[in-house]
Specification:
mainly alpha
């Protein structure tokens, strides 16, 4: 807000450019591109590098959490 209303032209340009970048990021990138690309890529979204896969296998984490097999009720 304050940058865009400044009397100095360069500062005003920075303010308007920043506001435009935030608006484009919030609407086009986050609302349209990310969901569309995740839909197109499918399971490849969840690819992990080999060291992280080994760590995950060693630690033994699961989506259900640690209390899943101990009489937990849903």
């Amino acid at each position: 807000g304050a940058f865009a209303t400044s009397e100095i032209i360069f500062i005003k340009e920075v303010g308007i450019g920043t506001a435009a970048a935030v608006l484009i990021d919030a609407t086009i990138v986050r609302a349209l591109l990310v969901p569309a690309l995740m839909r197109l890529m499918g399971d490849r979204n969840w690819w992990a590098p080999a060291p992280l896969r080994r760590l995950h296998a060693r630690v033994g984490l699961s989506e259900a959490g640690p209390a899943a097999g101990r009489g937990a009720t849903a």
